[in-house]
Structure formats: C-alpha cells, structure tokens
Design a protein that fits this description.
binds S-adenosyl-L-homocysteine, Rossmann fold, 36% helix, seven-stranded mixed beta sheet, 7 strands, alpha/beta, 201 residues, binds magnesium ion
Length: 201
C-alpha cells in the first residue's frame, strides 16, 4: 500500500521536474532517524511531500512539521499526505519559511528549500534545534557544480553555486556548530552543536 503510493509520488516528481531527494540521500537520513531515535522533524521545503512522507512512515511516533511556499506544490503535498493517511503526524504549513515562526524544539531540521537562502534558514531555525539535534542540508553538491562549475555558463546557476559555496564556508567556520559533509545523493551536510556551546536554552 505504502509502496504503491510512493511510486506514484516519485513518478509525478519525475514527470513534473520536482526535485525530490535522491534515493541514496533519503536512505541515509532514514537510517539516521532510526539510529538516533529522532521523533520531531522540521523540514524547510516540502515540495509534494515525498521526503516528509518517507520520514513519517518510519514509525508512528514520528512527527513532521514541513513548510512549503509554492501553492501548487503545497496542494499536491496535502493530497499526498492525505492519501498516505499521515495528516495527524505531518503538519504542513503553507508559507515562506523565512516569514514563518515555529515553536518548540526539533531533533532534526532538514533544510531543502531555496539554495540562495540556506544561511538565512540556518540562522533562523537553529533556535528550534534540540541541544542534541542535527541540521541536515541537501544539495550542497548541486549536480557536481559546486566542485566543478565549468559545466555551466548560466549566470543564475553560477550565482547559486556561489551561494552554496558561501554556505559551506559559513558552516566550516561556524563557532557554534560542527559540520560533517557527505558525498551522498546530491551532497548533504550534518551540523551539530559543538560541545557546551548550546546557548539557545
Ligand atoms: N524536501 C522535498 C523536496 C523539496 S524541493 C523532497 O525531498 O521530497 C524544494 C522546495 O522548497 C520547493 O517546492 C520550493 O517551492 C520550496 N521552497 C523554496 N524556498 C522556500 C521558502 N523560502 N519557504 C518555503 N518553501 C520554499
Ligand atoms: Mg533537495
């Protein structure tokens, strides 16, 4: 049942060019959630609800709050969440994550929205991170362009590459967080509070 619904969502994503997480990336996060007893997840960028549904499907005590600004994506996500009977555990918010205020602490914050705003998302939502929680960010490789941008001459794309590199530098030099960078999927990072520097209590 769950399988069939997921295939449907994946096919829709493919046909409509919705950039849902790649298999290897999502598998890594699913393992992380299982191994670290993650219960509360905040996602920035729901798209059609694929990753939120995958997270919530791991166990029935997992709760996901997810934010999406695009109207059509939001509507499709609401439908998919309903089709998978996850309305009571996935709270989808329609709005711009930079203008949304979220209460409470989360074990995992997943940043998967506009790449040009990664630093802003990180700075805004770190107060919602549990002291033992992690912030995972997707698409830090951007199809390999972050490592080698010679494959594109598109100005907007190069601008985004620059922004992602800035975010990577921001994480590497961050005094509050330690970050691990993994070449999984389209490149992900995992940031945790450095020992004893949690000053958001
Ligand atoms: N996490 C999803 C994929 C998200 S794609 C999955 O793996 O299944 C990125 C989404 O972020 C897009 O749907 C886009 O509309 C949304 N987005 C971009 N900037 C945003 C913002 N500032 N606030 C909310 N959503 C945003
Ligand atoms: Mg992504």
């Amino acid at each position: 049942m769950v399988r069939i619904q997921l295939d449907k969502i994946k096919t829709y994503a493919k046909n409509n060019h919705v950039p849902i997480m790649q298999d290897s990336g999502i598998e890594y996060i699913l393992e992380y959630i299982k191994n670290n007893n993650v219960k509360k997840i905040l996602e920035i960028g729901s798209a059609i609800g694929y990753s939120a549904i995958r997270f919530a499907s791991i166990n029935n005590d997992i709760e996901v709050t997810t934010i999406e600004r695009d109207n059509n994506m939001y509507k499709e996500a609401v439908k998919n969440i309903k089709d998978n009977n996850l309305e009571d555990r996935i709270n989808i918010i329609h709005g711009d994550a930079l203008e949304t205020n979220i209460d409470g602490k989360y074990d995992l914050i997943f940043i998967d929205a506009a790449k040009s705003q990664y630093i802003k998302f990180f700075e805004k939502y770190k107060i919602n991170l549990d002291k033992n929680g992690v912030i995972i960010t997707d698409n830090l490789s951007f199809h390999g362009l972050v490592e080698d941008d010679s494959k594109t001459h598109n100005r907007n794309t190069l601008q985004l590459v620059k922004k992602i590199r800035k975010y990577i530098e921001f994480l590497k030099s961050n005094e509050e967080f330690d970050t691990e960078f993994l070449k999984i999927g389209d490149g992900i990072s995992i940031s945790k509070f450095k020992n004893n520097t949690c000053n958001n209590l």
